[in-house]
């Protein structure tokens, strides 16, 4: 793209000029802010509304100011999150997209997914009101100041409004009396009796607990990645014999799309003519590029490493295989975002018995104070505060150690995990080719000479194996000789003139085509599918073996997980069975738990099947092809450097891009589970003891509040222990 006099026009690519001109100009731009002139804003009100909706919906844009009369558009964006050049390209795409009259329903649909934040409960200042009520009660009671009782009672009534709403909602929608109803009754009785300090303290602790719990809740809205945003904004097509560049949204079924080296394939289709080396790792997980020719299928989001292909478009946008992967992820079950645990369920079940007990006490004593004491000692408040406090402290502690756990539910499920499924490429392996051995097949030639010849021949080639050979030669500090003439044959190898020698580097088939005697490969030297061969002066000199090597920590992490009682390890990969089994054997993963040649839908099916067997499944992956499996797992794990959709789908993100973080995360989750059980005991024991006293002998409501709230505070402080630790525990407590 070139900017000329503020006007942006597409430049030439591979000799083909574009006829597309974008109807805007950049007036002024600084980092984080750009002013544009868009003439269409003057006369097209609908376009203006569509553009504003699109811009305001973009998470990278912080503010939008449009002046239609001046055709002026000013956009402020997060410069720390996106490069200026990339943001201008993004703005260009949005300006073009706004011209689509169908964009309004799409934007409206997207906006309807956003969880409202202005409802009464969320905006009601319950915590502030309860704090004011507590202060007024103390000033009017302990200090004896002339505070009108109606003022204190009125403040308590206002602060009680959210509790009343939740109690009413429980009756109306769930057809049951919930914890909030119990709280409301205790607050109402003590307020009517004029004991203002008791309900004020109760309200303050309830609101603190609700705020903590809401902060640990994960939004139920799945943030998905628009497939078109992951590809280029413009596509080369051939129409009526002419090449032209059009917006990706305008590509239709039947179009002939042209893809050049270094570009992503934007559609699903079949190759009409040409051939290319395609990197499908992003979609299938296959670590090695694949040579594809006329008639073979190609898929959106795959990368053309070398070559040029003309594709007959069969599927576009969300109908492509990559789009269907995203759809699979969107259709996965959305789980409750609040931590479900046994203690809370017991507390919920205790509501009706507590009310009945209060009724019996009142029938026997006719004393409302004793009834209020019984209702105050409900076990629920302490549990509702201590559990979220523990969760929030644990999530904070984990984040400080490079582990992002998105919700309390994910933390709970992680503590129960008994099966872990790993994607291979990019998760257990580095996801890039590396040389693992250089072997001379000629006694008069050293292995370093073999490497030097190969590196010289492979210079400036973009094939992953060529890049790996160059890296290995540089790491071995080999002097790479100069290359003169050279000829590269896609999918086969390269011929080059090096220091007066004719050198061939490539596949077994390529060298045979050049008349090289491959006899030295017989006997002790077996052919290897993951190797290239080097010949010079008509004679085979050696071979270079390569592989997608394991992460440094993979063996150690898998070994530790296999030694933990109840943990079952599976591996999924898009690679062929032979490669998959070799990697599994190296890691100690049983062959029966190794699933090869797995596309996204098969990966999701494996996870679902394990889940249906009653297992609690964690899935670890990092690509678009992993997103459906991530969504269907009980706990999904990805890396900070994984694909955007994998990060957004994952419950747990390892910010250090190291599998050791998974071990640490499981240990943290299990310790949090133990802490929650401990806090439950801290709450239950004193409250049950006080309840017995209140029923049999009577207990002042304020005393009951002190015991109830005191145990809550102790449990809450105990729940903060994770963030008071100085270093994480490395060992895994038993899951059982």
Automatic annotation (TrEMBL):
Compartment(s): Cell membrane; Membrane
Keyword annotations: ATP-binding, Cell membrane, Membrane, Metal-binding, Nucleotide-binding, Translocase, Transmembrane, Transmembrane helix
Membrane protein topology class: Multi-pass membrane protein
GO cellular component term of the entry, any: plasma membrane
Renumbered residue ranges of the record's region Disordered: 1-20
Domain P-type ATPase A: 235-330
Chief site of localization: membrane
SUPFAM superfamilies, alphabetized: Calcium ATPase, transduction domain A, HAD-like
GO molecular function: ATP binding; ATP hydrolysis activity; ATPase-coupled monoatomic cation transmembrane transporter activity; metal ion binding
Glycoprotein among keywords: no
The UniProt record lists the keyword Metal-binding: yes
Similarity remark: Belongs to the cation transport ATPase (P-type) (TC 3.A.3) family. Type IB subfamily.
Protein name per Swiss-Prot or TrEMBL: ATPase
């Amino acid at each position: 793209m070139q900017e000329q006099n503020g006007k942006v026009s597409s430049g030439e690519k591979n000799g083909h000029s574009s006829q597309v001109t974008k109807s805007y100009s950049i007036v002024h731009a600084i980092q984080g802010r750009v002013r544009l002139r868009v003439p269409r804003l003057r006369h097209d009100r609908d376009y203006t509304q569509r553009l504003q909706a699109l811009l305001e919906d973009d998470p990278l844009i912080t503010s939008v100011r449009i002046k239609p009369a001046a055709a002026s558009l000013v956009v402020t964006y997060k410069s720390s999150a996106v490069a200026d050049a990339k943001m201008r390209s993004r703005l260009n795409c949005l300006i073009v997209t706004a011209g689509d009259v169908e964009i309004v329903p799409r934007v409206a649909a997207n906006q309807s997914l956003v969880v409202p934040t202005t409802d009464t409960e969320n905006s009601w200042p319950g915590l502030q009101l309860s704090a004011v009520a507590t202060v007024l009660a103390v000033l009017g009671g302990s200090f004896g100041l002339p505070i009108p009782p109606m003022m204190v009672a009125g403040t308590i009534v206002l602060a009680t409004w959210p509790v009343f709403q939740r109690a009413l909602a429980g009756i109306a929608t769930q057809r049951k009396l919930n914890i909030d109803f119990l709280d409301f009754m205790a607050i109402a009785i003590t307020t009517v009796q004029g004991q203002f300090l008791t309900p004020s303290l109760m309200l303050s602790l309830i609101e603190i607990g609700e705020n903590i719990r809401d902060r640990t809740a994960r939004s139920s809205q799945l943030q998905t990645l628009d497939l078109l945003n992951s590809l280029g904004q413009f596509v080369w097509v051939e129409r009526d014999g002419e090449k032209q560049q059009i917006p990706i949204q305008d590509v239709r079924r039947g179009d002939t799309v042209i893809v050049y080296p270094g570009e992503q394939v934007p559609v699903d289709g079949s190759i009409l003519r040409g051939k290319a080396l395609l990197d499908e790792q992003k979609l299938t997980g296959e670590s090695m590029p694949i040579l594809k020719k006329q008639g073979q299928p190609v898929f959106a989001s795959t990368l053309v490493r070398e070559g040029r292909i003309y594709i007959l478009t069969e599927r576009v946008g969300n109908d492509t295989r990559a789009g269907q992967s995203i759809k699979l992820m969107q259709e996965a079950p959305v789980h409750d975002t609040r931590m479900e645990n046994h203690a809370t369920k017991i507390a919920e079940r205790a509501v009706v018995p507590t009310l009945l007990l209060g009724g019996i006490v009142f029938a026997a004593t006719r004393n409302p104070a004793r009834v209020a004491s019984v209702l105050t000692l409900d076990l629920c408040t302490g549990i509702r505060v201590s559990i979220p406090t523990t969760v929030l402290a644990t999530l904070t502690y984990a984040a400080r150690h490079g582990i992002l756990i998105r919700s309390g539910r994910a933390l709970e499920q992680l503590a129960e995990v008994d099966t872990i499924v790993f994607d291979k490429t990019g998760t257990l392996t580095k996801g890039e080719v590396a040389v693992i051995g250089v072997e001379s097949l000629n006694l008069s030639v050293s292995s370093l000479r073999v490497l030097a010849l190969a590196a010289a021949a492979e210079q400036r080639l973009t094939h992953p194996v060529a890049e790996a050979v160059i890296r290995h030669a540089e790491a071995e500090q080999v002097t790479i000789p100069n290359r003169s003439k050279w000829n590269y044959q896609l999918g086969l190898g390269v011929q080059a003139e090096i220091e007066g020698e004719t050198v061939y580097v490539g596949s077994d088939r390529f060298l045979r085509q050049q008349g090289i005697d491959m006899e030295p490969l017989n006997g002790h030297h077996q052919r290897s599918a993951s190797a290239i061969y080097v010949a010079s002066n008509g004679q085979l000199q050696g071979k270079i073996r390569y592989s997608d090597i394991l992460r440094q920590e993979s063996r150690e992490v898998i070994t530790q997980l296999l030694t933990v009682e109840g943990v079952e390890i599976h591996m999924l990969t898009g690679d062929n069975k032979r490669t998959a089994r070799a990697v599994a054997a190296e890691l100690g993963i049983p062959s029966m738990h190794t699933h090869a040649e797995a596309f996204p839908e098969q990966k999701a099916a494996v996870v679902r099947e394990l889940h249906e067997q009653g297992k609690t499944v964690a899935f670890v992956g990092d690509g678009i092809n992993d997103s459906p499996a991530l969504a269907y797992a009980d706990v999904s794990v990805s890396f900070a450097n994984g694909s955007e959709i994998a990060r957004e789908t994952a419950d747990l993100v390892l910010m250090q891009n190291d599998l050791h973080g998974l071990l640490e995360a499981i240990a943290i989750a299990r310790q949090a589970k133990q802490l929650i059980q401990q806090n439950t005991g801290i709450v239950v024991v004193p409250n049950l003891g006080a309840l017995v006293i209140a029923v049999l002998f009577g207990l002042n409501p304020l005393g009951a509040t002190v015991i109830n709230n005191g145990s809550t505070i102790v449990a809450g402080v105990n729940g903060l222990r994770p963030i008071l630790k100085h270093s994480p525990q490395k060992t895994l407590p038993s899951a059982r």
